[in-house]
Write a structure and sequence with these properties.
Blueprint (H helix, E strand, L loop, with lengths): L1 E10 L7 E2 L2 E6 L2 E7 H4 L5 E12 L1 E6 L18 H12 L7 H14 L2 E8 L2 H11 L2 E8 L5 H17 L6 E7 L8 H14 L3 E5 L4 H10 L3 H8 L6 E5 L8 H6 L2 E5 L1 H6 L7 H7 L2 E4 L12 H16 L7 H15 L17 E5 L13 H7 L6 E6 L2 E5 L2 E2 L4 H25 L1
Parallel strand pairs: 1-5, 6-7, 7-8, 8-9, 10-11, 11-12, 12-13
Antiparallel strand pairs: 1-2, 1-3, 3-4, 5-14, 14-15, 15-16, 16-17
Helix pairs in contact: 3-4, 3-15, 5-6, 12-13, 13-14
């Protein structure tokens, strides 16, 4: 039976950027059948869902995060996670005393928070994928999960991790909502070129992309220029990495001279503005990327860094940060920012034919927002993209759907038990603190 969702506003994000006031989205099974004005569609046969006072739009896409790291929320204050020293001294040394059993409640809390705040799809990069995968399945979210690889300049470690990555990629074959990718932490600096060459055949075999960190500072470029006489982007081309889709988080120090080549490749720069600002890393050259035609998306990064999963907040932060960087109001338009959080992420994950806009034939991945909450008034004459970027938060979200199934209905989770996950995460954090204190005593 068809579902007919009728709302006061439907923001399609289709090629014509159609906005229907009021509008309907007609869904059959997991697909959108039709989107259009309410007067034409509301009387179709099927189960009518009255979403009066709501805005329907595509679900948001968080193109870079690390879901287990909510376990470390609040620990990294005063450290820059965009530098090796800051990351190692605040997070990496804690990861050594954490363990796999702490992962499931952290992932459950992360997924529940993303759902509550309007995210339907996310890209994750971490280890412990055997613990992450079942929780993501249970959440009902769509995800690209990348097996995290840190090259410790130990060939045995590399061979072990590549074997684990291969086993994970094999396991997720045929998953309806989950794709498996490779997750080298950062190319050239902590994944040696020999390791990268070993990773490429796996990506080829499984049709996987690469989810990496790139140019949070000038380290990769400096290393590549000193050792190979080329920039990091040029080395990605030379090694063949850019024959595969790449989600490159941060790109704060990306040079304009490399942008045209990246625009021609299946490359996406994922901007995480709150994390970059919190780490004192500066602002990525987003306006120049758009001018060059580079695909861009938004992410939260880990919430030990950004402290939250609200992509509406990231939209607002990104827009204001770019205006500050460029010294120009509206340096990157509100519509461009909303596109980054929907279609941009979908393109980066190879899912643009499935999600990112509300169009016939695409998956029924969407969210509703309460138009009667504070921040919307007055509706008359207000640009919807401006409202979404500068006035709205994820707490305006009421309903979340993936594949035609409700993951959140009237602000209540349907797939995850958030209170239970919070209690379990609290227990894990207490145990983590106990281990940290014991380590400190030994020192």
């Amino acid at each position: 039976m068809q579902q007919i969702l009728c709302a006061d506003m439907v923001l399609s994000m289709n090629t014509e950027r159609k906005l229907y006031q009021p509008g309907c989205v007609v869904i059959e099974d997991d697909r959108i059948v039709e989107v259009g004005p309410q007067e034409r569609l509301k009387n179709q046969s099927g189960h009518k869902v009255d979403l009066s006072g709501r805005l329907l739009m595509p679900g948001l896409v968080n193109a870079h995060t690390h879901t287990p790291m909510v376990l470390f929320r609040g620990i990294a204050e005063g450290y820059s996670l965009f530098s090796f020293d800051g990351w190692y001294n605040s997070i990496r040394k804690i990861e050594y005393v954490a363990d796999a059993d702490m992962t499931p409640p952290a992932v459950a809390v992360s997924c529940a928070e993303m759902i509550r705040l309007g995210t339907t799809t996310f890209a994750d990069q971490y280890f412990y994928m055997d613990q992450i995968l079942p929780v993501v399945r249970r959440s009902g979210m769509r995800a690209v999960l990348s097996y995290g690889i840190v090259d410790e300049k130990d060939d045995q470690v590399v061979d072990r991790e590549l074997a684990n990555a291969a086993a994970f990629l094999e396991k997720v074959q045929g998953e309806p909502r989950i794709k498996g990718w490779m997750g080298p932490h950062a190319l050239f600096e902590d994944n040696r070129i020999e390791t990268i060459r070993k990773e490429l055949p796996l990506a080829e075999k499984y049709g996987a992309g690469f989810h990496i960190h790139m140019l949070t500072n000038s380290g990769e470029d400096d290393f590549c220029r000193q050792n190979f006489g080329k920039s990091a982007a040029q080395m990605m081309i030379e090694t063949g990495v850019l024959k595969h889709p790449v989600l490159a988080a941060h790109c704060v120090k990306l040079q304009e001279e490399d942008m045209p080549a990246l625009a021609e490749a299946p490359f996406t720069a994922v901007i995480c503005p709150s994390a970059a600002m919190r780490s004192g890393a500066g602002a990525a050259p987003l306006k120049a990327m758009h001018k060059a035609g580079v695909n861009t998306a938004l992410g939260t990064d880990n919430v030990a860094n950004s402290n939250g999963y609200d992509l509406f907040r990231e939209m607002s932060t990104a827009a204001k940060l770019m205006s500050t960087r460029e010294g120009q109001p509206g340096a990157v338009s509100a519509r461009e920012i909303v596109e980054m959080a929907t279609l941009g992420g979908a393109r980066g994950m190879g899912l643009a034919d499935q999600i990112g806009s509300l169009e016939a034939g695409k998956k029924a991945d969407l969210i509703s927002l309460n138009l009667n909450e504070v921040g919307w008034a007055p509706h008359s004459g207000q640009d919807v993209y401006t409202a979404l970027v500068y006035s709205i938060s994820g707490m305006h979200v009421c309903d979340v759907m993936v594949d035609g199934e409700w993951l959140l209905k009237d602000t209540r989770w349907t797939t995850l038990d958030y209170p239970q996950a919070r209690r379990q995460l609290e227990d894990a954090r207490i145990e983590l603190q106990r281990r940290m204190d014991r380590n400190d005593e030994r020192l």
